[in-house]
Amino acid sequence: MALLGIGNCTYLDWKTGRLHEGLDGTALERLSHLFGIYSCLQLLLPIPERADAWIRRPNSAPPFAGNSALHRMLGGHISDLIAVREYLHAQRDGAPSD
């Protein structure tokens, strides 16, 4: 819910198929970034346990400032998701991370 920026009622309606009008544009944008993060992690760390560990592990790279990627993603802003996605894209493409 926090990653999508939606409330409990919206989440439950969506999960049970009762959300007839669909998610708003902001939630869809967040979902797009989450899919991008997931996709990059699958390429970089194809073993699910390694990807799960990476997202939760403290990281000294500039976008994370010693916190985990999940901590950054839960910051509440779309820009937090974008920062994680851009970092992973740079890692995937072999570009410097800062």
Main features:
single chain; 98 residues; mainly alpha
In terms of DSSP E residues, the strand content is under 5%
How many domains comprise the coordinates? 1
Structural class: mainly alpha
**Number of E strands:** 0
Shape by Cα distribution: elongated
Low-confidence stretches: none
Quote the distance from N terminus to C terminus. Answer: 29 Å
Topology pattern, helix = H, strand = E: HHHHH
Rg over CA atoms, rounded to whole Å, is 15 Å
Mean pLDDT: 89
- Secondary structure: helix percent: 55-70%
Largest sheet: none
* Tally of individual helices: 5
What does this entry look like structurally?
- It is a single chain.
- Helix content is 59%, strand content 0%.
- The protein has 98 residues and is mainly α.
- It has one domain (24-93).
- Helix 2 (25-44) packs parallel to helix 5.
- The termini are far apart.
- The mean pLDDT is 89.
Layout of helices and strands, plus pairs?
Layout: H1 8-15, H2 25-44, H3 48-56, H4 69-73, H5 78-93
Question: What is this entry, summarized?
Answer:
This protein is mostly helical and 98 residues long. The protein is built from five helices and no strands. The model has no long low-confidence stretch (mean pLDDT 89).
